[in-house]
Design a protein that fits this description.
This protein is an alpha+beta fold and 113 residues long. The chain has a domain of 48 residues: Protein of unknown function DUF2782 (S-adenosyl-L-methionine-dependent methyltransferases), CATH 2.20.130. It contains 1 helix and 5 strands; from the N terminus they run αβββββ. It has a 5-stranded antiparallel beta sheet, with no helix packed on it. A hairpin with a 2-residue loop joins strand 1 and strand 2.
């Protein structure tokens, strides 16, 4: 029984050993990024303004650029946070759950009366 456990353990560790052997031994740390040029000041108008509103244990973060609301992050008390992203100028909102791209529905005008 102990031989089976040992073989099972080795079978599980074999991919890790191969991965460790494949890494080069002469790795160097990355250099520090250069400092910003003198006189450079970031434009505060291009950065989003974040407003955090709490309702009990729930939290809503509103992201605005130039005063226009374009995204909301909703963090419920019990659950996974999700995003509401503005899809159109008319105020249509789409829920975005995770790294996948949101569903893009075509808005073609076929007929006008």
């Amino acid at each position: 029984m102990s031989r089976i456990r040992t073989l099972f353990f080795l079978a599980l560790c074999a991919p890790l050993l191969t991965l460790a052997a494949a890494l080069p031994s002469d790795l160097q740390p990355l250099p520090e990024p250069p400092a910003a040029p003198e006189g450079y000041e970031p434009d505060s108008a291009s950065e989003p303004q974040v407003t955090i509103t709490k309702h009990g244990a729930d939290a809503i973060e509103e992201y605005r650029i130039n005063g226009e609301l374009y995204m909301q992050k909703v963090t419920p008390a019990h659950g996974i946070p999700y995003y509401l992203v503005k899809q159109s100028v008319d105020g249509g909102w789409a829920r975005m759950d995770g790294p996948s791209a949101p569903l893009a529905v075509p808005n073609w005008v076929l007929f006008r009366f």
